[in-house]
Amino acid sequence: MRKLRMLALPVVIVMIAAACSAKESGDGNGGGNQEENKGTVNVLNALEPTENKILQAITDDLITPEVDYKTEFEVADDIAQQIQIRSEGGTLDVVLVPQPGAVVQQAQDGNAVSLEDMGFDIGELESTFGEYFLSLGEFEGEHYGIPTNINLKSMVWYPKDDFDKKGYTVPTTWDEMIALSDQIKADGSTPWCVGFESGGDTGWPATDWVEDIMLATAGTETYTKWISHEIPFNDPAVMEAGELFGDVMFADGYVLGGADQTPSIAFAAAPAPMFDNPPKCWLHRQASFINAFFTDFDPKAKPGVDYDWFPFPGREQQGTLFAGELAVVFSNRPEVKDFLERFMAEDV
User: Fold this and answer.
1) Which of 48, 51, 175, 286 has the fewest Cβ atoms surrounding its Cβ within 10 A?
2) Is residue 78 within 8 Å of 119, Cβ to Cβ?
């Protein structure tokens, strides 16, 4: 499933479906010369199965008929482990990596191939995606990741129809959100739907909570220092974010099932009780991709009618958390570069 994390882009809107081009190069290497065309390109990813099928269908329709190789999109629920295992085994072509830190780690370990070695024009990529976004995959002056998508993470979902009937008001500050939680509890219900289970990556939704609170309390400058390891995890700003997170998770009656159950509740299933009649929980903090599951809970659910969202509210500061995958190359072959160029093209 999608583990999209640690990309704080407070004022950046990235147009992913933009054309990008690259200079041809026949002697790139990632620790060696460019390899021979093997006739297939494997794209390992942590997307939802439906998204994976869509990308496969688009590629089969628009790319495959024009080239002399086939592309295979492959979903891995435990992508962090698979990257490590398969990179060591030399069986990776392209990985849509959801953690920038993992991109840098693979570059540091010598497994990933730099975009410079592949022959890409970094200036043109920066003009398309922005220097900051591209720099997330930078290591020792070279770049190892092409942004492929972006998701808004600072979102709180709620059952709009029932919410409006109860007369609840969308909060715009942290204190208002806590007051709303107290009101829902006083009305005899449970404010928050929460689930952190995600296979080998269990816990990532909890880190997203803390990141959002960091932005809401300490602001983007301190947040950037934190993820850049310029301040420690026991810095007062980090400690405050953790304590506020605990104020929600461990408050009596705030979390459906209790905080101790959240590691065993699948993140994708966590918002399901929000669609019960009446809702068993009313608020769910999760990224923009989560509504892909809502029709599983209620096939007739309509956005803006049955459910809606509001921005994760600020406190002393205001920030917005974004995230996305970076395409990382592990095999320096001509068909791999050709695929990436076509995959990023405007008509795909």
Assistant:
1) 175
2) no
Separation between Cα atoms, residue 138 and residue 144, nearest integer Å: 6
Token pair, residue 216, equals 């809401």
In contact, 214 and 238? CB cutoff 8 Å: yes
pTM score of the predicted model: 0.76
Length of the chain: 348
Q: What is the DSSP string of 235-286?
A: SHHHHHHHHHHHHHHTSTTTBTT-GGGGGGSBTTTTTGGGGSSS-SEEEEE-
Q: For the chain, where do the domains classified as CATH 3.40.190.10 start and end? A: 7-150+324-343, 153-322
How does pLDDT run across 38-57, given as a tens digit for each residue?
899 999 998 878 889 989 99
Q: Are 312 and 217 contacting, i.e. CB atoms less than 8 angstroms apart? A: no
Q: Tell me the pLDDT band of 17, cut-offs 50, 70 and 90.
A: very low
Preceding peptide of 299 cis, ω within 30°: no
pLDDT tens digits, 265-317: 999 999 999 999 999 999 999 999 899 899 999 999 999 999 999 999 999 88
Residue 343 has pLDDT above 80, yes or no: yes
Range 254-262 average pLDDT: 97
**Could you tell me which residue, 207 or 21, shows the higher pLDDT?**
207
Q: Which CATH superfamily is domain 7-150+324-343 in?
A: Periplasmic binding protein-like II (3.40.190.10)
